[in-house]
Structure prediction request, 385 residues.
Amino acid sequence: MEEPHAGVSAVTPAADPHSPEFFEMLLASQGGALKVLKYGDTFDGTILHVGRDELVVDIGAKSEGVVAARDMQTLTDDERTALVVGAQVLVFVLQPEDDQGRISLSLDRARQERSWRRLQQIADEAGIIEAMVVNYNKGGLLVNLDGVRGFIPTSQVSGVGRGNEAQKQAEMARMVGNTVRLKIVEMSRQRNRLILSERQANAESRDQRKGALLSEITVNDIREGVVTSVCDFGVFVDIGGADGLVHLSELSWSRVRHPSDAFKVGDRTQVVVLSIDADQRRIALSIKRTQTEPWGNVTELFQVNQIITKPVTQMTQYGAFVKLAEGIEGLIHISELKGDALQRVHEGEPVTVRIVRIEPSRRRIGLSLNITPDAAEPSADSDAS
Prediction:
């Protein structure tokens, strides 16, 4: 039997030249130079020709591949300009061989496939992605991630409040064009479904920043912060990655009925760190302790028997509180608020009183409606702050 020429593999004579096995053997004899294609394959190819309605691409197969105009619609103007002869492009096999014997390819599907693979890796690693909001609808925001459309439900959008539907739509409209950080909640390539959450991404980022902040701050630190929430018992202030609570009693040296009377979301303020609970990840803050304690020089500002006209701040079961200075109030005892005297005292209106007692250590000042110095004075023990 004659030996085959060097560099050429022998083909079994019994093989049918029209069978798939024969074709596979032929490929093997040529060193596997030609690719066997199937739907969904992605390859790097070289542009051979740029036509008005198509690209001709060499992907190392027996035939050239063709990308029709409809399969490169997601390209930007800059990306279209880069489509020149000799340029490398990633392509997706739509049809291994069409009726003209050519390979049908897609740039759009290649981009989408690459994006899905990247998203799957991010999801597996529980990572965070960034995307620009391209549109919105009644249910939420839409983003485009290199050919993959993602959806952020309204409930997962941090910038949308709890207002009526018109307010929510207006808030979402303002977010179009903004770049947001997102966490993958649900992903299905088969259903072309990608659900994302801005709230989860922000919460995770804040949790990481809070951990770092808890390790670096110390009690008595003074920080600049932004009010992030106002509630009945105080306000929460972001001090650079973590929220701390300023309790109602720590808002001001002056009496504050409700935190919303003194602060609103977005206000900037200085705070001092009162305590840190690393285990519970809680930070207690104070605003009033960044200010001068007003009772320190109260005896320099006021004297017993001094007559003064100031506004009533609050009517209580103990009597009427009168604002004497910022952070300093005096009390007209309830025993004086009877008959005609009660008609002279109204919340929010000025009243003329006499200072009958000053107790700096107890932060108390007793007041009387009777401005005659020798008038009987209420007992100190009956006073309340």
Summary: The first helix runs from residue 20 to 29. The two ends are 117 Å apart (CA to CA).
